[in-house]
UniProtKB/TrEMBL annotation:
Residues covered by the RNA polymerase sigma-70 region domain: 8-71
Gene3D superfamilies reported for this sequence: 1.10.1740.10, Winged helix-like DNA-binding domain superfamily/Winged helix DNA-binding domain (1.10.10.10)
Pfam families: Sigma70_r2, Sigma70_r4_2
Source organism per UniProt: Piscibacillus salipiscarius
Residue ranges occupied by any RNA polymerase sigma factor 70 region 4 type domain in the UniProt entry: 109-160
Record's subunit section: Interacts transiently with the RNA polymerase catalytic core formed by RpoA, RpoB, RpoC and RpoZ (2 alpha, 1 beta, 1 beta' and 1 omega subunit) to form the RNA polymerase holoenzyme that can initiate transcription.
Protein name: RNA polymerase sigma-70 factor
NCBIfam families linked to this entry: PRK09636.1, sigma70-ECF, SigX4
Signal peptide segment: none
Amino acid sequence: MQITNEDYQLFKPLLFSLGYRMLGSVAEAEDMVQETFLKAYQIDEERVKNKKAYLCKIMTNLCLDLLKSAWYKREKYVGPWNPEPLLLEKLHALDPSEKVIQKEGLSIAYLRMMEHLKADERTVLLLREVLNFSYSEIANNIKKSEENCRKIFSRAKQKISVVEGESLNYEENKSIIDRFIEAFQMEHTDTLLELISNNVTLYSDGGGKVTAAIRPITSVTNVLALLYGIIKKAPNDLYFRVNSVNYQPAIVIYINGKFHSIISFYISDKKISEIYLTMNPEKLHVY
């Protein structure tokens, strides 16, 4: 297949968006994008009627193959598994071609919920909701009937319905996080209880590389106790800032001038319902 530079610039963000959502890993998604283009170069041009659909089909199949080994690795993973955060230093200065990835379904909460989907459910959901493929195109992509694809889509939507109440309003969420930080620093418990759900859960991902809770922490009392415990043990040169992570405000923490961890949030009904503390150094990169 002939791939021009224009094709590459046009389809690369689209393929990355698909791969990142399927894999929850920036590095793996980028690898699969490159592999997709390499495979496309080897395809007979006459076999391709729609470049976008064909490239997405290659990308989907590569990601599905990778997921088979990824699931095995995640069964052996130490502690909770959080998707790799996508730390964006310049939220409002993206190239127009990259804005295709600025859609719903990129939050850490959504990506984490995707882990509960089977491979075909994940694929159908993404092709339908992210890429707006018709059921006919999806059926051809994954070699299942249109009717079956509709059922798979419906089943997938039911499984992730819990995150459909997530607030994606950046400024409103930033206001909540700013209040959370201030109340936390001042130890204003009443304000914290207003901002955090009673049933809040914290997922601490160290991947066995650094010290982290190996089980989810539940209840506002336990979550706050853990966070205060971490702060008390932190060195004096710790500093943080609120930045865009997966197009939502998150707390980015530095120690000794080095990238240390990211705290992301799932906010619903103006309350923090879940907290994702990612400390695995293999998942901490700036893009």
